[in-house]
Amino acid sequence: MLTSVAPTISTRMQDYGFLSIVPPLLTIALAIYSKNVILALTFGILCGSFIITDFNPFNAVLDSIENQLLAEISNGTQAQVIVTIMIIGGFVRLLEVSGGARAFAGKMTAIVTTPAKAQIIAWLSGLAIFFTDSGNSLIIGPLYRSVFDKFKLCREKLAYILDTTSSPISILIPFIGWGAYIMSLIEKSYAEVGLTENAFVVLIKVIPYQFYAFLALTTVPIIIFTKRDYGPMKRMQARFLEAQASTPKDAETSKSGTADESTEDRIGIFLYPLSVMLLLIAGLISWHATHEGLTGIHIRSSLDIAYLAASLTCMEMMRRYRSMSYSESLGVFIEGAEKLVYISIVLLLAWSLSSVTKDLHTADYVASLISGSVAPMYFPMIVFILGAIISLSTGSSYGTFAILMAIAIPVGFELGASMYLTIAAVLSGGLMGDHVSPISDTTVLASVGADCNHLDHVTSQGAYAVITGLVTILAYWMAGIYESPYVLIVAMIVLFVAMTATMRILGSELTPQADHET
User: Fold this and answer.
1) Other C-beta atoms within 10 Å of 365: how many?
2) pTM to 2 decimals?
């Protein structure tokens, strides 16, 4: 059988060594150089399979197709995610064609009078959609594209806000899919070292120490408060303003000249389906939480049912107010789903690369680089850095949690390190690396939601996330010495000072015209 070409787990560390980190490093380098994510992911997978099969080209192709790509397609969870994304894409397209999304944007520009308010409301909307990290960007992004265009804000800024409010808010909610998954990892690792504390209680106690999630969420309003941008984001904003300046005013008028026609009907076409979707999600999630418990498949099935019901509602309203038949509406829905074929391919390849790094035991090799005698007070800080490196390399926070939790909890227990801090460091590290990884699914989805170039989003976001990450390292160092939730407050103050100072030194103000537009 083909699976026999891969060495056993016990020999992988010895067999692969440094080679285990070559595929993810190659993928990241190629993505940056070629600006083609699919090409980079494909070469990364082939490179990993080449190593796994002892450098046999024929077996490498077989392994990459059969053991990686097709194995991920047949994975129930991955298939469910793709189906959910397709359904969301169909619903979003219905709202766009119906005029509902445009009417919402027009209404918001009447309420939101400054670029700062536009960014704040996008941030608050991201916090409100806490139940899905993958759906967050696809729900909110299309709604605020026109708003950001109106106030001369580049799409990369929207992608940054989407990405920074998706996973960071989801990881802080214990009763959704993230919480259920993390609790299962805690329970298993605790059992292995003989700890009996309830996993839910542990997760609640860990929340105040999830420094990166809190600091990432705080970074957004700090940036908005400064009204400045620096680094790649500054260049993206300047490029966007140049493009806006070169667009004839007549063209802008023609795009929005009919915005007042049947405005109330259009807003209804937006509000009613959205209300159906939100009510069903809340109701179904509450029902699952109080009956069988909330699992990943419950979250995804709730989303599927809610979005399909909302799509049917939108179709009915389009028939009533736009004289569009159900067949035509179904065609629009399918068109929206088809637009997400590219993102589905990227996700599938990203999952396959994660599978390759698992077979190569990349995480164990990286972990071995810092093995040895470590003081308990420094252990959480080291775990955070290690988690960020693994997640950056694999593009998967979920995978990083599974890999590192099984390593960090036993090692931390032996060292006498704080279990709460150690678990929080695993979660924060995985989140940070996933946040800046070009092969992360949530990072890709943020680019899709905002409709901007993916690598432009990665580079512009990375410049901001690095400062947040450095402050998080400092926070875990302080928490290792003084294990107190009040460390979070100190870290937020440090983040505010560091970010505002960086903006004053390296940043430039948003265009004055945009600040006074209404």
Assistant:
1) 19
2) 0.67
Residue with tokens 């279990």, as numbered in its chain? 419
- What does residue 396 show for φ and ψ, rounded to 5 degrees? -140, 115
- pLDDT, one tens digit per residue, over 466-510 is 999 999 999 999 999 988 889 999 999 999 999 999 988 887 776
SS3 228: strand
d(CA 27, CA 38): 10
Residue 106: predicted pLDDT: 64
CA angle 178, 278, 210 (to 5 degrees): 25
What are the tens digits of pLDDT across the range 186-222? 877 787 678 888 777 888 899 999 999 999 999 999 9
Taking residue 102's Cβ as centre, other Cβ atoms within 10 Å add up to 21
Stated as kind and residue range, the H or E segment containing 418 is: none
CA 242 to chain centre: 29
Spatial distance between the Cα atoms of 300 and 81, rounded to a whole number of angstroms = 7
Task: State whether the Cα torsion 63-64-70-76 is positive or negative.
Answer: positive
Beta-carbon contacts of residue 147 (< 8 Å; ≥ 6 apart): 105, 108, 109, 112, 118, 121, 122
SS3 for 508? strand
The encoded tokens of residue 253 equal: 């008028």
Q: Which two tokens stand for residue 283?
A: 């109701």
Rounded Cα–Cα distance for residues 364 and 389 (Å)? 12
Given a cut of 70, whether residue 405 has pLDDT beyond it is yes
For the chain, give the longest Cα–Cα distance. Answer: 72
Sign of CA pseudo-dihedral 436, 437, 442, 444: positive
| One-letter-per-residue 3-state SS of 118-143 | HHHHHHHHHHHCCCCHHHHHHHHHHH
Task: State the Rg of the chain over Cα.
Answer: 23
Query: At 228, phi and psi to the nearest 5?
Result: -135, 165
pLDDT greater than 50 at residue 64: yes
Assign 46 to helix, strand or coil.
helix
Return the ∠ at Cα 488 (arms to 484 and 490), rounded to 5°: 100
